[in-house]
Each structure stands twice: as C-alpha cells, then as structure tokens.
DNA sequence: GGCCGAAATGGACGCTTGTCCATTTGTGAC
DNA sequence: GTCACAAATGGACAAGCGTCCATTTCGGCC
C-alpha cells in the first residue's frame, strides 16, 4: 500500500543495525529476538527469512562491525604518508579517533569477544586486532628496526607490535569502563610516549617524526 | 560451635566456585541457575537461601574474583624490595604469572566487564584494574619521576600508569583470545621494553634496575 | 527419645526464549 | 487482469528461564 518501495535486501541490514544497537545499549545477554525485531520494526519471522538462526544474525552483525573497522583503518592508511612511522601513526590515530572509537563500537567489540565461547560462529570476527592489523604494524616496525643497529630487528618488530596492539586494546577497555574520564588526546600522547621511548628517532610525544636522527 | 558443622557458609562458597567455573567454561550467557546447581551438586533452592537472586550470586562471584586478584597482588607487593621500580616490577610479574593469569581468570574477568550493563550489582567488582591498582603504580612512578628533570612529574606518572595498565589489560585480552600462542616471558619483556624506553635509569629489558645512572 | 529451628530439597509457577509455519501482502511478467 | 512466486507477517510451540514455597532432613539441646 505505501508507494515508497520497501527494498528487499534492506531489511537484512536493518536487522543487523538493530542487533548492534541493542548489544551496545543493553548488552548481548538481554538482546533477544523479540528485542531485535522491536528495534527493527519488523516481524518475528524476518530473522529466519534472512538468517539461519539468531547466532548467524549475530555473526553477520560481528562481521559488519569487523569490516567497518578495517575499512576505516585502511582508508586512513591509504591517505597517510608512506614512511613507516607515519603509517603507524595513521593506524593509531584512526583507532582512537571520534569516528573509530565510540561507546557503541567499544561495547559491541567487547561483547563479541566474550560471546565467542557461546557462539562459535562469531570467532572469525570477534578479534578486531587480529593478524590483519598486526601485519600492518609489524611490516612498518620492521622497516624501521632493520635500519637500526638492533641485534634482532624482526624480534624487536614483533615485540613492538604486540605491545602496541595490547596498549590500544587496553585503552579501548579503559574507554569502555570510564567513558566520561577518557581523553583521546591524552591516550594518543601515552601511545606516542611509549613509541618515542622505544624508537626516539622516529617518534616524539606528538606522533611520528621526519627522520631527524 | 563445632568446627565440623555442616557449614552454612560452605555451600555459599561452593555456589560461588561453581558459578565462576561455569562462566569460565561455557560463558555467562549459558550460565543458568540450573547449570550452576548442577555443578555445585546442590538443589535449586540453595541459591535463594544464600543469595537474594541470581544477580547477587554473580556479584558475590565477581567480588570473590576481585578480592583474590588483589590479595595475590598485595602479597607480592609486600614481599618485594621497597624501591619504586621493584614495586612496579612485582605488580607486573604477578599480573602475568602462572598463578595470577590463567584462562579461567582472564575469561571471568572479561565476562564480568561485559556483564556490568545487564547486571549493575557487578559494577564495583568488574573493573579489576581500577583506582586501587592505579594508585599503587602512580605513587611508585611519582617517586621516580620526581627525581628526574621531568617538567611535570605528576603528569608523567599519570601517563605512565595509564599506559602500563592499558598494556596489561590488553595482554590479558591477547592471552584470552590466543592462549596457545601466549608467552609469559615474552609478555613481561614487552612491558619492560616499554618501561625501559620511558625510564631507562630504572628499568631494563629484564625488569627493574638498581640505580645505576 | 523427643523437640525445635535452621538447612536443604525439588516440584511447580508464570514468563520469556528461539524457532517454526500457515497465512497474507506485494511485485513483476505475461 | 491474472498468475506465480518471493517477501513479510505474527500467532503458536516446546523448552528453558529465574523464582518461589510447601515439605523433608538433620544436628544440638532438654
């Protein structure tokens, strides 16, 4: 009856968005099928029309979240300068930006991490900072450590990657638990303080440095 | 009272232990009252004899977990040397030790963080690395930065605390998501690498240093 | 041995859960 | 206009949920 056409595949995305909103606001435990379809404004049967089960809807929501994270990240990466320290800087700043880190994003990310045990289908998308992100960092760090007189540049690059990824993960948790106290600038300064300590030729307190030696 | 009495308080603890075991193994979402009493080997009514509700049992389990973390931590702290860098070292090593960081502990910690939204009673015990731990670190860092020619020693101490706590939190998540790949020694080395970069006079790659500079 | 009150039991309650399916609605082809 | 089929609906279902409470068990005291 309404002549504004109800597009077919759109309802799939509406369900995914409603699921993410519900998880962010009331948590995965309270996110029932009833809750999701109420938020989506659709009928109960829609979920099993577009998805095999509730779990597969959750997996699609996690995948959407995962893809959005990396799309944003790789977009920042492609617009950064090519020198390794600037690529690292771009990834860090994107990860802490107002677009990249919101309460909803931090919360859904954390919930999906927990839920992997109960919902195995989520596994491929529950670890936001997986090998894909680690590889970006590790390659960039290797380019830097190879030039230095480091006895084992590959090891140094791996350690720096693990430490940096852990710190970023921890800052997300910090933001999640104390969103009102969180300061993005301060968080970035803390990360660069650590990088400046490890690679003083390439990083300062404010971010990446042009080679100054 | 005889010390062998069929102890009122014992079944309370049995319920708490069963709850923690269930959360660690199958996740909070699948941890139902039926599941808990089956693991405890008790009857349904026991939960409401010892606790107001399921949520208050969860809160008691979170509190137990929280207390155990700090008991261990403060025990390590009391047995460490008093110089600030050694107190920091003791806290870090305890946090990453085989006793302090197990899969069960990491998982329950993570689940309680998520569950705060759905179960407000958990809030006081869901943030393991809260102001209490931060204060230990911040005081120690301040003792160090005050002696240095740092323009703002208090700020430096706060930044170092936030960065260190975030990194430890992130390492726990790393351990949780990839327990088979996790190496405690490597994790400690990564933390000390960062501390050595920031405070080279007090830390080396292997841990705290006696004042050498 | 008999009694009392606390400890413990487990069946039953009303609700909500995820899933299913018999219908209805809407669109494009002919 | 009519047909065919996909999209969408929402009521019904059994299973499982957290909670409650009438009943039974049991140790300590007279």
Element layout with pairings:
Two copies of one chain form a homodimer.
Chain A: H1 10-26, H2 33-40, H3 46-50, H4 54-78, H5 84-96, H6 103-115, H7 123-126, H8 131-147, H9 153-177, H10 184-198, E1 203-204, E2 207-208
Antiparallel strand pairs in A: 1-2
Chain B binds a DNA duplex (30 and 30 nucleotides) through residues 1-2, 5-6, 8, 11, 32-34, 42-49, 53-54.
Overview of the molecule:
The structure is a homodimer of 213-residue chains. By secondary structure, chain A is mainly α. In chain A, 67% of the residues lie in helices and 2% in strands. The first copy, chain A, is built from ten helices and two strands. The longest helix of chain A is centred in the N-terminal third of the chain and has 25 residues, at 54-78. The relative contact order of chain A is 0.10. Residues 1-7 of chain A have low confidence and may be disordered. Chain B binds a DNA duplex (30 and 30 nucleotides) through α3.
Question: Quick summary of this structure?
Answer:
The first copy, chain A, has ten helices and two strands, in the order ααααααααααββ.
């Amino acid at each position: 009856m309404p002549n504004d056409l109800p597009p077919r595949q759109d309802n799939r995305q509406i369900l995914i968005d409603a699921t993410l909103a519900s998880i962010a606001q009331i948590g995965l435990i309270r996110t029932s099928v009833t809750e999701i379809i109420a938020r989506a404004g659709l009928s109960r049967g829609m979920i099993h029309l577009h998805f095999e089960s509730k779990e597969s809807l959750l997996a699609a929501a996690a995948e959407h979240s995962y893809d959005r994270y990396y799309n944003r990240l790789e977009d920042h990466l492609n617009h950064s300068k090519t020198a390794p320290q600037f690529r690292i800087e771009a990834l860090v700043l994107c990860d802490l930006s107002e677009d990249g880190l919101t309460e909803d994003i931090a919360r859904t990310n954390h919930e999906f991490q927990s839920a992997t045990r109960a919902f195995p289908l989520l596994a491929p998308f529950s670890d936001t900072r997986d090998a894909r992100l680690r590889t970006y960092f590790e390659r960039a760090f290797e380019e830097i450590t190879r030039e230095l007189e480091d006895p084992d540049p590959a090891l140094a690059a791996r350690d720096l990657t693990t430490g940096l990824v852990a710190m970023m993960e921890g800052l997300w948790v910090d933001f999640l638990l104390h969103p009102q106290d969180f300061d993005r600038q301060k968080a970035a300064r803390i990360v660069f303080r650590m990088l400046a300590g490890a690679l003083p030729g390439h990083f300062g307190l404010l971010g990446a440095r042009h080679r100054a030696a």
